[in-house]
UniProtKB/TrEMBL annotation:
The lineage of its organism: Archaea, Nitrososphaerota, Nitrososphaeria, Nitrososphaerales, Nitrososphaeraceae. GO terms for biological process: methylation. It comes from Candidatus Nitrososphaera evergladensis SR1. Keywords: Methyltransferase, S-adenosyl-L-methionine, Transferase. InterPro entries: DNA_methylase_N6_adenine_CS, Euk-Arch_PrmC-MTase, SAM-dependent_MTases_sf. PANTHER family: METHYLTRANSFERASE N6AMT1. The keyword Transferase applies. GO terms for molecular function: nucleic acid binding; protein methyltransferase activity; S-adenosylmethionine-dependent methyltransferase activity. This is Methyltransferase domain. The keyword S-adenosyl-L-methionine applies.
Length: 169
């Protein structure tokens, strides 16, 4: 299970600006982000492939689903959030921090999984990305899917910058 760190708290702060009926967190980890979403959303769903994370989050007033990204879900969400493993590196070494050779492979897989679930009119996806990852890979994906991307916040850490990006149709 990914222990909440500065990137988790950064996503919590960014997600506070959104409201709606349905919210989804992909890769729920400790549940810190999903739990914060309960303040502004009627229904919150969290997914993870790690049974220990889901067990840790049990009883925190959110719906939990064991699946890869959002692969087992249907319906529409007003907001999808994720703090995916975003550092370049082999995910087999540490699935909680390494997002693939470019650092974007897991992020793109999570986004692609969530796209059918976003409400077309006002659905938004919020994701954390790192300056250490290959942003050109994500930008190419965004263009191919005809998504709109904007940086809604950024945070400097001692060795990288984190960006909260919002994706919409």
């Amino acid at each position: 299970m990914y222990v909440p760190a500065e990137d988790t708290l950064f996503l919590v702060e960014c997600a506070k600006h959104y409201r709606g009926t349905w919210a989804l967190e992909i890769g729920i980890g400790s549940g810190a982000v999903a739990q914060s979403l309960l303040a502004n959303f009627t229904n919150v769903v969290g997914t993870d492939i790690d049974l220990a994370s889901l067990g840790y989050c049990r009883g925190k007033c959110m719906m939990l689903v064991c699946c890869d990204a959002a692969s087992a879900l249907c319906g529409k969400f007003d907001l999808v959030v994720t703090n995916p493993p975003y550092l370049p590196g082999d995910p087999r070494v540490d699935t909680t921090i390494h997002g693939g050779p470019a650092g974007m492979e897991t992020t793109i897989r999570f986004i692609e999984s969530a796209l059918p679930l976003l409400s077309e009119k006002e659905g938004r996806m919020l994701a954390i990305v790192s300056s250490l990852a290959d942003s050109a890979t994500l930008d190419k994906f965004v263009r191919e899917k005809r998504l709109k991307k904007k940086v809604v916040a950024e945070k400097a850490l001692f060795y990288e910058r984190l960006y909260a990006i919002e994706l919409t149709f």
